[in-house]
TrEMBL record, chain A:
Residue intervals passing through the bilayer: none
PROSITE patterns, per database record: ABC_TRANSPORTER_1, ABC_TRANSPORTER_2
Similarity section: Belongs to the ABC transporter superfamily.
InterPro entries cross-referenced by the UniProt entry: AAA+_ATPase, ABC_transporter-like_ATP-bd, ABC_transporter-like_CS, BCAA_Transport_ATP-bd_LivF, P-loop_NTPase
Keyword Transport applies: yes
Record-linked SMART domains: AAA (SM00382)
GO BP term (any one): L-amino acid transport
GO molecular function terms attached to this record: ATP binding; ATP hydrolysis activity; branched-chain amino acid transmembrane transporter activity
Top-level taxon of origin: Bacteria
Keywords noted in UniProt: Amino-acid transport, ATP-binding, Nucleotide-binding, Transport
The protein's name: ABC transporter ATP-binding protein
Automatic annotation (TrEMBL), chain B:
The protein's name in its UniProt record: Branched-chain amino acid ABC transporter permease
GO cellular component, one term: plasma membrane
GO terms assigned for molecular function: transmembrane transporter activity
Topological category with respect to the lipid bilayer: Multi-pass membrane protein
GO biological process, one term: amino acid transport
Signal peptide annotation: none
UniProtKB/TrEMBL annotation, chain C:
Pfam short name (any one): BPD_transp_2
Keyword terms: Cell membrane, Membrane, Transmembrane, Transmembrane helix
Alphabetical list of PANTHER family matching this protein: HIGH-AFFINITY BRANCHED-CHAIN AMINO ACID TRANSPORT PROTEIN BRAE, HIGH-AFFINITY BRANCHED-CHAIN AMINO ACID TRANSPORT SYSTEM PERMEASE
A GO cellular-component term linked to this record: plasma membrane
UniProt topology in membrane: Multi-pass membrane protein
InterPro entries xrefs: ABC_transp_permease, LivM-like
Signal sequence, start to end: none
Cell compartments where the protein resides: Cell membrane
Residue ranges crossing the lipid bilayer per the database entry: 6-24, 31-50, 56-77, 84-102, 133-153, 185-207, 219-246, 258-282
Designated name of the protein: Branched-chain amino acid ABC transporter permease
Coiled coil: none
C-alpha cells in the first residue's frame, strides 16, 4: 500500500518551487480567541493535479481552505503559490498571485446578472497576467451555456448552473491554483457528476485544483491524490486509486492507518 | 385640488427619494438603518445656508457645498464610529447612530441657534397651468432630484464602482475574493450617500424653515419609503419615496396636515403586518 | 436649596426607572426601543387624564397596562424580523405619540398640556411636606422596580433571555417560546416606562409635549450603556451620574461667559451623544460589567428546558 502517514515534508521541499504549484508548511489557524482549528498542516501539490481533502465533520477542512484563500488569517506557517509566499496577502491579492477560490455556497452574486458576475471576476484584480478577452473566450468555451443568457440574474440559476458560473468567475483570473470548497454541496447526484466533470476539464486546461469534499465517492473518482484531515491535522495522504472507501471509515474515527 | 395634491406629493416624494436611497444603500453595505439620516439632512440644510446666506453664493453652489460637507461628515462618522463597531452587530450600530444623530443636531444648534432660518432667494411667481400651481422651489426640487437619480442609476447599473457597491452589499466575503475592497467601497458609498442627503437638505430648506429639528420631520417618511421599497433595494427606495410622498399629501384630503407622518407610520405598520419584504422584494425575516 | 435637591433626586429616580425599563428590553431581551420618550409621555398623560377621576393608584395601573399593551403590540409586529425593523417602528412610535399629544387638544390640552395633576396622598399630606412625600414615593417606586428587575433577571425567565440574547441561532432553534418571553420582557419594560411617566406627572403636576422630547430616549440609552448592559445596579449608578453631570453642567455658564443659553444646552445634549458613542467604542461592558453568572447558574442540572443551548451555540460557531 502506497499510503503513508503524513510526515512533515523536508524543508528543502520548499526550496524548489518549480515542482509544486501549492506548498503549505506548518499552517495554523482558528477563529477569534478559540484554539487552533487548523493545527499545523504541511502539504505540497504538484502542478496540474487534483487533490481532494476529505475528513469527518469538524475536522477543519473548510477552515483549511478558507485559510488558503485568505478569509481566515493564518496564525503560523506559510503558504506558497508557484514558489511565491502569499501568506501575508489579502484575499484579493492572492487572486492576483494566481490563487482562485470558489466558496461553498453563496459563490455567485445572486442579485447581479451573469454578465455582471463575469465582469466583476476580473475588473478589480490588478496585475495578473493572462487576464483578458483571450482568457474569457477560453473559459466560456469550457462553460458554453453561460454565454447564452448574459442578462439572467445569477440568483435565478439552478444549483448546477450557479456552480458553473462560480467556476468560470474563478477561472477568469487565470489562476495557477483553484480552491473549491465542497463543490457538490446541495446538488443532485446527476449535477454532482457534471460538476466533477467540469473540475476535470479545468485541470485539463492546465490548472491545479485543490478541493474539499464531503461526497467522498465523487471526489475520489476525479482526484489524483487524497488528503485526509482529522482534527486539524493531516492523517493520510495517498494516491486516489489506492484508497478504498472502506479504509477511510477507520481513519475518520481516529485509527492509525 | 386632487391634481394639485398629487403634484405636491410627487415633489415631496422626490425630495424623500434622495435620503431614502441613501439609507437603503448604507443599509446594503453596513447592515443597519442609520438613525442619523434626519440629523444629516439638517446638517445639509445648514451647510447650504452657510454657503448661500453667509458666503453669498448662489444656490447651486450652496447645494454642491452641502453635498460635500455632508459627504465628508458621513465618511468621518464611518471612520470614527461605525467602522469601529461594525463587528458588534446592527443593534450596537443603531444605538451608535442615535448618538451620532444627537451630536450632529447639536453641532447645528451650537453654531446657528434654535431660530428658524431660510435661504436668500428672490421670490418668483408660481406657474399656473390648468388650475395647478407649480412654484419655483418645486420645479427646482423635481429637476435636481430627477437628474441626481438618473446619474445615480447609471452609476449603480453601468459602472464598475456601481457593480462593486452592489457586490459588497450582496456578498461581502465573495466580493473580497474578487478583489473588491469592502473598506474602499464603504467609504465611497458613505461619501456619495452623504452627498445625496446634503442635496436633499438644501431642497428641504427651500420647502420649509431651517432649524435644528427639521430633520425629524423627514425621519419617519424616509424610513417608511426605504421599508416600502424593501430595505437594501435602491430602485425600491425611490418608488417607495414617491408613494409615501403622494400618500402623505393625499391624506390631507381627510386628515389634518399635521397628521401626515401618521400616514407614513401606518404604512410601515401595515407593511410589516402583511408584506415584510417591502413591495419590491428583499428579505426582512431573520432565520 | 432643599427643593432643588428634591428635584434632582426625583429626576434621578425617573431616569433610573426609564433606564431599568430599557435595561429589561435591550439589556435582557435584546430588543431595542428608540421610542422611550413616547412611552414615558403616554404614561404621564394617562395618569394626568385619569387620576382626577379614578385616583392615583388606578391611574398608575392604567398607565402601566396601556404602555405594556402598546409595547407588546409593537414587538409582536416585528419580533420575527431583523432588529432594524423594531428600531424603526419604535422611532416612529415616539414621533407619533408626540404628534398626537400636540394635536388631540380635546384630550391632552395640545401644546398647553395638562395642569393641576393631583399627587398621591395629596389629601393626607400636611402643608409643606409635599416634596417629602413625593420623594419617598419616588424612592419606593424605584426600589420596587429595581427589586422586580433583579428578581426577573434571576428567574428562569431571565436566564433563558440572557442565554439567548446574543445568539440568534439559539433563538431560532428554540423558536416561539423564546420569542414570547422576549415580547413579555419588552412589555414589562414598557409598563415601567409608563410608571416613570406617571412619577414625572405627579411630581411636576403639570405636563406638556415639550417635556417629552427624544432626548429622554438618549438619556436612557446613555444610562444603560454607562451602567453596563444587563446590570441593574450599574444602571442605577449610571442614571445617577448622568443626571448629576447634566445638573452640574448647568453651571458651566458661570465659567464660560461667552457661551449663550442655547449653546450651553446644545453642548450638554451633544455631550450625551458623544458619551453614547465613546462608551460603546471604549467600554462596551459599561462602568459596572454585567455580573458573570456561571454556567451552572444558567442551567442547573435539574432545569428541564434549555440545556442543549450551549452545545447549539458552540456548534453555530464551527
Amino acid at each position: 500500500m502506497n499510503a503513508h502517514a503524513a510526515a512533515p515534508p523536508p524543508a528543502s521541499a520548499l526550496d524548489d518551487p518549480r515542482d509544486h504549484a501549492l506548498a503549505v508548511a506548518g499552517l495554523r489557524a482558528g477563529y477569534g480567541r478559540g484554539g487552533d482549528i487548523v493545527c499545523g498542516i504541511d502539504m505540497i501539490q504538484k502542478p496540474e493535479t487534483i487533490v481532494t481533502v476529505i475528513g469527518p465533520n469538524g475536522s477543519g477542512k473548510s477552515s483549511f481552505i478558507k485559510t488558503l484563500a485568505g478569509l481566515l488569517p493564518a496564525r503560523a506557517g506559510r503558504i506558497e503559490v508557484t514558489g511565491r509566499d502569499i501568506t501575508a496577502l489579502s484575499p484579493a491579492r492572492r487572486v492576483a498571485a494566481g490563487l482562485a477560490y470558489v466558496p461553498q455556497e453563496a459563490n455567485v452574486f445572486a442579485s447581479l446578472t451573469i454578465a455582471e458576475n463575469l465582469k466583476l471576476a476580473t475588473e478589480f484584480i490588478r496585475g495578473r497576467a493572462g487576464v483578458g478577452p483571450g482568457q474569457r473566450e477560453r473559459v466560456l468555451a469550457l462553460f458554453p451555456e453561460l454565454g447564452q443568457r448574459p442578462k439572467t440574474l445569477a440568483g435565478n440559476l439552478s444549483g448546477g448552473q450557479r456552480q458553473m458560473l462560480a467556476f468560470a468567475c474563478a477561472l477568469l483570473a487565470n489562476p495557477e491554483v483553484l480552491l473549491l470548497d465542497e463543490p457538490s454541496a446541495g446538488l443532485s447526484p446527476k449535477i454532482v457528476g457534471e460538476t466533477m466533470e467540469a473540475v476535470v476539464r479545468v485541470r485539463e486546461a492546465g490548472v491545479t485544483v485543490l478541493l474539499v469534499e464531503q461526497n467522498v465517492a465523487a471526489a475520489l473518482a476525479i482526484a489524483d491524490e487524497v488528503v485526509v484531515l482529522v482534527a486539524g491535522r493531516l492523517s493520510l495522504r495517498a494516491k486516489a486509486g489506492d484508497v478504498k472507501q472502506a479504509d477511510l471509515a477507520g481513519l475518520f474515527f481516529g485509527k492509525e492507518a | 385640488m386632487v391634481a394639485q395634491l398629487f403634484l405636491n406629493g410627487l415633489v415631496t416624494g422626490l425630495l424623500l427619494a434622495l435620503p431614502a436611497l441613501a439609507l437603503t444603500l448604507i443599509f446594503g453595505i453596513m447592515r443597519f438603518a442609520n438613525f442619523a439620516v434626519g440629523a444629516l439632512l439638517t446638517l445639509g440644510a445648514y451647510a447650504g445656508y452657510l454657503a448661500n446666506v453667509t458666503f453669498g453664493l448662489p444656490l447651486p453652489m450652496a447645494a454642491a457645498f452641502a453635498a460635500l460637507v455632508v459627504g465628508l461628515a458621513c465618511v468621518l462618522c464611518d471612520e470614527l464610529v461605525f467602522e469601529r463597531l461594525r463587528e458588534r452587530g446592527s443593534i450596537t450600530l443603531l444605538v451608535a447612530s442615535m448618538g451620532v444623530s444627537l451630536v450632529i443636531e447639536n453641532i447645528c444648534r451650537f453654531a446657528f441657534g434654535n431660530a428658524a432660518r431660510s435661504f436668500d432667494l428672490a421670490v418668483a411667481r408660481p406657474i399656473r397651468w390648468n388650475g395647478i400651481r407649480i412654484n419655483y422651489e418645486q420645479m427646482t426640487t423635481a429637476g435636481v432630484v430627477v437628474v441626481a437619480l438618473i446619474l445615480f442609476h447609471l452609476l449603480l447599473s453601468a459602472s464598475p464602482l456601481g457593480r462593486a457597491m452592489r457586490a459588497v452589499a450582496d456578498n461581502p466575503s465573495l466580493a473580497a475574493v474578487r478583489g473588491v475592497e469592502r473598506r474602499t467601497v464603504a467609504r465611497i458609498t458613505w461619501m456619495l450617500t452623504g452627498a445625496l442627503i446634503g442635496i436633499a437638505g438644501v431642497l428641504a430648506g427651500l420647502d420649509r424653515a431651517i432649524d435644528p429639528l427639521m430633520g425629524w420631520n423627514y425621519q419617519i417618511p424616509i424610513f417608511a419609503a426605504a421599508i416600502l421599497g424593501g430595505l437594501g433595494s435602491p430602485l425600491g427606495a425611490v418608488a417607495g419615496a414617491l408613494l409615501i410622498g403622494i400618500a402623505e399629501e393625499m391624506s390631507t384630503l381627510v386628515l389634518p396636515p399635521s397628521y401626515r407622518q401618521i400616514v407614513s407610520f401606518s404604512v410601515i405598520l401595515l407593511l410589516l403586518l402583511f408584506r415584510t419584504n417591502g413591495l419590491f422584494g428583499a428579505k426582512a425575516v431573520r432565520k | 436649596m432643599i427643593s432643588y435637591l428634591v428635584t434632582v433626586v426625583i429626576f434621578v429616580a425617573i431616569a433610573a426607572l426609564v433606564g431599568l425599563a430599557l435595561n429589561l428590553q435591550w439589556g435582557l431581551a435584546g430588543l431595542v426601543n428608540f421610542g422611550v420618550s413616547g412611552f414615558v409621555a403616554l404614561g404621564a398623560y394617562a395618569v394626568a387624564i385619569t387620576a382626577p377621576h379614578v385616583g392615583w393608584l388606578a391611574a398608575m395601573a392604567f398607565a402601566a397596562l396601556m404602555c405594556a399593551g402598546l409595547s407588546m403590540l409593537l414587538s409582536l409586529l416585528t419580533i420575527r424580523l431583523e432588529e432594524n425593523y423594531l428600531a424603526i417602528v419604535t422611532i416612529g412610535f415616539g414621533e407619533i405619540v408626540r404628534i398626537l399629544l400636540l394635536n388631540e387638544g380635546w384630550l391632552t390640552g395640545g401644546a398647553l398640556g395638562i395642569s393641576g395633576i393631583p399627587r398621591p396622598f395629596a389629601g393626607m399630606t400636611p402643608a409643606g411636606w409635599g416634596d417629602g412625600v413625593i420623594l419617598v414615593f419616588a424612592v419606593v417606586l424605584v426600589t420596587a422596580a429595581f427589586a422586580f428587575s433583579e428578581a426577573l433577571v434571576r428567574s428562569p425567565f431571565g436566564r433563558v433571555l440572557r442565554a439567548v440574547r446574543d445568539d440568534p441561532t439559539v433563538t431560532a432553534a428554540l423558536g416561539k417560546p423564546v420569542l414570547a418571553l422576549r415580547v413579555r420582557a419588552f412589555a414589562v419594560g414598557g409598563a415601567i416606562m409608563g410608571l416613570a411617566g406617571a412619577l414625572h406627572a405627579f411630581f411636576l403636576t403639570y405636563i406638556d409635549p415639550s417635556q417629552f422630547t427624544p432626548i429622554i430616549t438618549a438619556y436612557a440609552f446613555m444610562a444603560v450603556i454607562a451602567g453596563g448592559r444587563g446590570s441593574n445596579l450599574g444602571l442605577i449608578l449610571g442614571a445617577g451620574s448622568i443626571m448629576l453631570i447634566l445638573e452640574a453642567t448647568r453651571f458651566l455658564k458661570d465659567i464660560i461667559p461667552w457661551i449663550d443659553g442655547v449653546q450651553l444646552s446644545a453642548l450638554r445634549l451633544g455631550m450625551i451623544g458623544v458619551g453614547i458613542v465613546l462608551m460603546l467604542i471604549l467600554r462596551p461592558q459599561g462602568l459596572v460589567a454585567e455580573p458573570k453568572r456561571r454556567y451552572g447558574e444558567f442551567f442547573p442540572k435539574d432545569a428541564a428546558g434549555p440545556a442543549p443551548n450551549r452545545a447549539l451555540a458552540e456548534g453555530g460557531k464551527a
